Amino acid sequence: LAAYNSGVGNVNKAIRRAGGTKNYWAIWPYLPAETRGYVPAFIAASYIMEYAPAHNLYPLHPGILYNGIDTVVVRQPVSFDQISEVLGIPINDLKFLNPSYKLGIIPATKDQKYYIQLPRDYIGDFINNEYTIYNYTSTKGIEKEKLLKQIKNIQEQQIHIVKKGESLSTIARKYHCSVNDIKKWNGLRSNTLKIGKRLIIYPRGTSIASNSPSTNRMSDNQPNTATSSTNDNKQHSIYHIVRKGETLALISKRYNCTVSDLMKWNNLQDYTIKVNQKLLIQTSSTIDDSAAAQSNKQVKYKYYTVKEGDTLWDIAQQFDGVTVEDIKKLNNLRSNRISVGQKLKIEVLN
Q1: What does residue 345 show for φ and ψ, rounded to 5 degrees?
Q2: Which of 325, 329, 322 is nearest to 349 (CA)?
Q3: 98 vs 84: CA distance, rounded Å
Q4: Beta bridge partners of 348
Q5: CA 306/CA 315 separation, integer angstroms
Q6: Distance CA 206, CA 340 (A)
Q7: N or C: which end of the chain has fewer CB within 10 A?
């Protein structure tokens, strides 16, 4: 391996300088710097592939593979919601496969066709149900007329890139709109701008710009009231504080919902969450009591005696919502090593 990396000549030179021995570790100080790291790295890679379970490392399926997707032509305007609900494709898969459609809308027309990537298993279903999808009204109320209106709004918008010295007021004067208009169009909560930020602007005369003033006054006075009251009427909301080692998958299992639900309720763009992050959990009225009870359960502790062949991963899997990091933190473990007969404190829900 050393000769492969640095050449036979360098290895022979190192052997001579080490007194003729052919032990790698003996000639190691005399090898080039890159080779000194290359061989140990190769050994480490081979070791971890062979003994991964001993270190709680397990393979994960990468998801959708390249040879598992295909492309179809879209001939009429359609949204990701319509495709998702008719064909049953997860909305996050559509976003992942088609990142160029940032708003989840494909603005196809008779004169200009667009393309969309789908999992190969759904290609036939899309072709067979193509016109059903175009005319389908989604649960969000997205239908053809509304979709055309959204596409028109997108075509009317301009993008302004913030330059040094600019403020919301100077930009508003430039485009003959109000500061509140710009804040609403871009979801801004303060007047602070960073150089290089891209702002959506609807020039005067467009349909959205003409409707902004009255709408904006309402949103400035009551930023979240409408959304909250709607949720209160239909759903019960609770909050979950993310603990170390938790993932969206673990949290969704705890509250009997899906990862997609959690991402939708909390406007998450990816699967990353942080410790102490507050996650909104929404439950339908039929399971309000059980969800509330689940969130209010008291924590208690159990002691688990390590058996032969046990790993921290195996033990964590026996307790709902418990992770390897939870066990290590609670028992002041600095590594994943445990011994037979050792007693481990486990935090469980009562």
Answers
A1: -85, 130
A2: 322
A3: 13
A4: 300
A5: 8
A6: 72
A7: C
pLDDT grade for 294, boundaries at 50, 70 and 90? very low
Q: Is 104 left (phi over 0), alpha (psi -120 to 50) or beta?
A: left
Task: Calculate helix-pair angle for 207-221, 144-156, nearest 10 degrees.
Answer: 100
Assigned CATH topology for domain 228-295? Membrane-bound Lytic Murein Transglycosylase D; Chain A (3.10.350)
Helix (H, G, I), strand (E, B) or coil at 70: strand
| 35: its two tokens | 């080779």
Q: Any idea where the domains of the chain sit in the sequence?
A: 2-50, 66-143, 157-221, 228-295, 299-349
User: What token pair was written down for 307?
Assistant: 């058996």
Q: Which residues contact 140 (CB under 8 A, 6 or more apart)?
A: 81
Q: Over 80: is that where the pLDDT of 126 sits?
A: yes
For the segment(s) 299-349, the CATH number from 3.10.350.10, 3.20.20.70, 3.40.30.10, 3.40.50.720 is: 3.10.350.10
